Amino acid sequence: MADLRNIVILTGAGISAESGIDTFRGGGGLWEQHRVEDVATPEAFDRDPDLVQRFYDMRREAIQTKQPNPAHEALARLEHEWAAREGRRLLIVTQNVDDLHERAGAENVLHMHGTHLNAWCTQCDVRSRWTGTLIDRPECPECGARALRPDVVWFGEMPYEMERIYAALREADLFVSIGTSGAVYPAAGFVRDAKALGVATLELNLERSQGSNWFDESRQGPASALVPEWVGEVLRKS
Ligand code: BJW
Questions:
Q1: Do residues 8 and 191 make contact, with C-beta atoms less than 8 angstroms apart?
Q2: What is the mean pLDDT of residues 81-109?
Q3: What sign does the CA torsion over 60, 66, 71, 77 have?
Q4: Over 70: is that where the pLDDT of 2 sits?
């Protein structure tokens, strides 16, 4: 680890699970209560906008009552300590639409699947910070149209920031995946992209994921324990 300089960290729903935010897959996950096709595709939104807006309004309200856990806090600490060391870079790429990385103090975070706390106007294409509801079809603060949707990436839509993510992977020495099932692309493919580039890979997840076999190392356990432990290791050894 002594010559470790550039780190790319991918996070998924598992990192926020211990903050009380539901994951998607597995027992009790969001997709057990709602079919993906009914709430997380552009077709679902066209078919039944009220159902989709209600689903996201509920989750937008819920995340604002949740707090970062020791895993978010450890990553924020690593980011700050890393930034203080010359020539080192760290990027957090999250699939999560919550803001717990930022609320823990992390600054260099890309939300590849968007964020609950933005509304996107399909009329003027402007994104506005949004903490309230959308079911009541409020006006866009920019253009006044009643055409706001959640600023999240649904199946079949292009995830955000892909160029910056692939550029960071090309520069990385280490790719770390935390709390994600490896079921959704393109994020699920990053481990293979990283390996093809000769980047070392590490997985931290509650259980083995669909992608575990691709990682150089895979550690199992709750993020609130595994992440602070790994961050401590990195800061001690680098
Ligand atoms: C813990 C823990 C604890 C629990 N501690 N761990 C066939 C083959 C390949 C691809 C496709 C295909 N058919 C269609 C596709 C493409 C499609 C896709 O991947 N489909 C799959 C179902 C196969 N992908 C897309 O459509 C994407 N767009 C796209 O591909 O565009 C084209 C493109 C081409 C080339 C380059 C780039 C782009 C868009 C995907 C959008 C995903 N959107 C969602 C919803 C966001 C809004 C919302 O929140 O509602 O994003 S779906 C949902 O899944 C959400 C998540 O970000 C994403 C990933 O889930 P995540 O985070 O992994 O959560 P879980 O629940 O799956 O896993 C949690 C893990 O944590 C588990 O492993 C637990 O064990 C663990 N855990 N507690 C540590 N305490």
A1: no
A2: 96
A3: positive
A4: no
Calculate how far, in angstroms, residue 154's C-alpha sits from the geometric centre of ligand 1.
10
* pLDDT exceeds cutoff 90 at 73: yes
Q: Is 165 in the pocket of ligand 1 (CB under 6 A)?
A: no
Q: In this structure, are residues 220 and 14 in contact, taking their beta carbons and an 8 Å threshold?
A: no
Which strands, in side-by-side order, build the sheet including 114-121? 127-129, 114-121, 148-152
Q: In this structure, which amino acid lies at residue 56?
A: Y
Ligand 1, closest atom to CA 97?
A: 49
Question: Given pLDDT bands bounded at 50, 70 and 90, which one contains residue 37?
Answer: confident
pLDDT one-digit tens code per residue, 98-157: 999 999 999 999 999 999 999 999 999 999 999 999 999 999 999 999 999 999 999 999
Distance 182 CA to ligand 1 centre (A): 7
User: Which atom of ligand 1 is the closest one to the Cα of 188?
Assistant: 19
Going from the Cα of 134 to the center of ligand 1, the distance in angstroms, rounded, reads 24
Q: Which CATH number fits domain 1-21+69-113+159-238: 3.40.50.1220, 1.10.357.10, 3.30.2000.10, 3.60.20.10?
A: 3.40.50.1220
Does ligand 1 come within 6 angstroms of the Cβ of 209? yes
User: Does residue 80 have an active-site annotation?
Assistant: no
